[in-house]
Specification:
globular, Rossmann fold, 263 residues, alpha/beta, seven-stranded mixed β-sheet
Length: 263
């Protein structure tokens, strides 16, 4: 059964999608069969992965709508939303319609387990499934992803306001782990867009390592132009510029992820 990893933060602008896309690409480059699932109504992962002409009209929002519309809770059309990107990379796409869906079905009793239900039929088809979550703790999408995942990665920037909500986010992960058997464990906390020249960044790293100890990844991802250039070419940093510092850092991060998943 494939391992499911969700990438979360309750604040936007921390580079969560950048990390999710490139970690997924790195796992695929190691020979693993990979599925991205875009759970963010902003659909940044979708737009990165595919040119507009290749994005299907039926997407994850429609999958949820069909799931909730069936009173038996047995309708699962996730396969209909999956687009094959390469031999071992695929994506279940998103759209802004997902925002409406999550608001409509936010209080259904099946809401927290919806993500788990819609991915269960495809887990055996992939080695890894990457869930890119919205920058908020929504019951359907983010909490649902945590409950459906084996592991969760918190992505943050080394800035006071970006780190402020991390403890509450960690508590939410622990809550889901306690009340939903099989819910994800924290795989690690990643410092993204790290600039070692800034005292604020160094202080943030010290604070994070003091609280989360070994859960903070050893790899720090810096700020590089290639990371903002690669999406417009629909490429990972490895395919865009494999010799770049960013590519080397992400390769190191992927190695850490693989090592931690084995533990």
């Amino acid at each position: 059964m494939g391992k499911v990893i969700s990438f979360v933060n309750n604040k936007g602008g921390v580079g969560k999608t950048t990390v999710a896309f490139n970690v997924g690409a790195g796992l695929a480059d190691e020979g693993n069969k990979l599925l991205y699932i875009d759970l963010d109504p902003q659909a940044s992962l979708t737009v990165w992965a595919l040119p507009t002409s290749a994005i299907p009209t039926y997407n994850v929002a429609d999958v949820f709508q069909d799931f909730f519309s069936d009173e038996s809770g047995e309708t699962n059309n996730l396969n209909k939303s999956i687009v094959y990107m390469s031999d071992n990379r695929s994506i279940a796409t998103s759209s802004s319609k997902l925002e409406t869906i999550q608001n409509i079905f936010a209080i259904r009793h099946t809401t927290p387990i919806a993500v788990k239900e819609i991915i269960k039929d495809v887990r055996n088809n992939f080695d890894y499934i990457i869930l890119d979550c919205p920058p908020s703790m929504t019951p359907l999408l983010t909490h649902g992803a945590i409950i459906a995942s084996d592991y969760t990665v918190i992505v943050t920037r080394p800035a006071y306001l970006d780190m402020k909500g991390i403890v509450s986010l960690y508590q939410a992960i622990r809550y889901d782990e306690k009340f939903y058997p099989g819910a994800s464990k924290l795989l690690g906390v990643l410092l993204n867009q790290f600039d070692s020249r800034k005292n604020e960044a160094k202080e943030a790293e010290t604070q994070l390592r003091s609280f989360f100890k070994e859960k903070v990844f050893n790899t720090l991802i810096g700020q590089y132009a290639v990371l903002s250039e690669a999406p417009s070419h629909h490429l990972s940093v490895f395919d865009y510029d494999k010799k770049s510092k960013a590519s080397k850092q992400f390769k190191s991060l992927v190695e850490e992820v693989l090592e931690r998943v084995k533990e």
